[in-house]
Amino acid sequence: MTFPALRFTRRALLLAATAALVPFAAVHAQQGGVPEITPAEAQAQAKAGRITLIDVRTPDEWRETGVAPGATPINLYHPGGAEGFVKEVVAKVGGKRDTPIAFICRSGNRSGQAQRLLAAQGFTNVVSVREGMSGSTAGPGWIRSGLPVERCKVC
């Protein structure tokens, strides 16, 4: 037997917990429950130093389009597998699993995968940049929104 009021209470608690864990101006949830922000929100937060922006695309993609200014390129398809990817992210944030992180990819799929992977590893403040760099059905993406890009420095 389910109790609608109890279900509402659980949902309200979940939403409140998510809001407390992800202190961004606007966090949206896509299918699958991955917290996400828009490219413009990610750019503003990164520029203000409030998030660590990590581009999880491949080196070929970084070379093709460039990367967001200040973004750290860490390939989700890391040569060391998921463990190598997580180790590199941990190193980037100095081991602080509550560091605000925003992942961006081409269209928003891999960044959602990266968010779920890090959440499973105990990270508490990670979001996906919806639309990604190139856009998706969710919107035009970073590049077509006219947000700045720079040449990849590590490619």
Please name the defining characteristics of this protein.
155 residues; alpha/beta; Oxidized Rhodanese, domain 1; six-stranded mixed β-sheet; 6 strands; 12% strand; Rhodanese-like_dom; signal; Rhodanese-like domain-containing protein; Rhodanese-like_dom_sf
What's the SSE blueprint?
Elements: H1 4-21, E1 28-29, E2 35-37, H2 39-47, E3 52-55, H3 59-65, E4 72-73, H4 81-92, E5 101-104, H5 109-120, E6 126-129, H6 141-144
Parallel strand pairs: 2-6, 3-4, 3-5, 5-6
Antiparallel strand pairs: 1-2
Organism: Aromatoleum petrolei
Signal peptide: 1-29
Keywords: Signal
Would you kindly provide a written description of the structure presented here, covering whatever features stand out?
Keywords: Signal. This is Rhodanese-like domain-containing protein. InterPro entries: GlpE_sulfurtransferase, Rhodanese-like_dom, Rhodanese-like_dom_sf. The chain is α/β, with parallel strands linked by helices. The protein has a single domain, classed as Oxidized Rhodanese, domain 1, CATH 3.40.250.10. Helix content is 40%, strand content 12%. The chain contains six helices and six strands. A hairpin with a 5-residue loop joins β1 and β2. The N terminus is likely disordered.
